[in-house]
Amino acid sequence: MLYFLLFIKFFVIGALSFGGGYASLPLIQRVIVDEQGWLTVPEFADILTLSEVTPGPIALNAASFAGYRVAGIAGSIAATLGCTAPSCIIVSVLAVLYVKYRSGALFSTVLGTIRPAVCAMVGSSFLTIASLALFGASSGTLNIAAVLLFAGAFLLMLTKKVPTVAVILFSGLCGLLLL
To answer: 67-104: string of b/e by CB count within 10 Å (b at 16+)?
Structure first.
């Protein structure tokens, strides 16, 4: 019964989470800490920390870790499947609609309208993260070392075609040593 409950709770979270992983975190906290009492606030904070530092989508990582803390490996699988099932269903339905109506004028109009909105959302996220990284969350003053590190990483990737992973690792090491 616990596995089914984990699946259903995370299915609802996956279905109602719009705006990316960070937007789903308050909903996850409300369900697993406030409503169900499966975890305490400090345990949830630990899960958030692990979810942020491990590769992959943060909401999916949080579901996996929370499911594991609540009911072991089977709980992790149930929560992860629950979190991903709505997206799989929605994408499958959209794929069928795309194949059927892709040549239609209405579909082209809808896609043409969505593209600029998605670009704006990605741009907004970039600006938010860049302003926090370059100006800091509290001081608001320009961090020259962060600006130079960003510019150097950008130029390396643009002109020398250095692999992204190498730039990330190098930047992380520089940030650890300099910032």
So the answer is: bbbbbeeebbbbbbbbbbebeeeeeeeeeeeeeeeeee
How does pLDDT run across 125-179, given as a tens digit for each residue? 778 777 877 886 666 788 888 888 889 888 888 888 888 888 888 888 887 887 6
Sign of the torsion formed by the C-alpha atoms of 59, 65, 68 and 71: negative
C-alpha span between 25 and 20 (Å, rounded)? 9
162 contact partners, CB below 8 Å, separation of at least 6: 156
What's at 30, amino acid-wise? R
Rounded to 5 degrees, what are φ and ψ at 17?
-90, 105
Alpha carbons 151 and 143: distance in angstroms, whole number: 12
- pLDDT tens sequence across 41-96: 888 888 887 887 788 888 888 899 999 999 999 999 999 999 999 989 999 998 99
The two tokens of residue 133 are: 């990284």
Number of alpha carbons in the 13 Å side-chain half-sphere of residue 2? 16
Sequence letter at residue 75: G
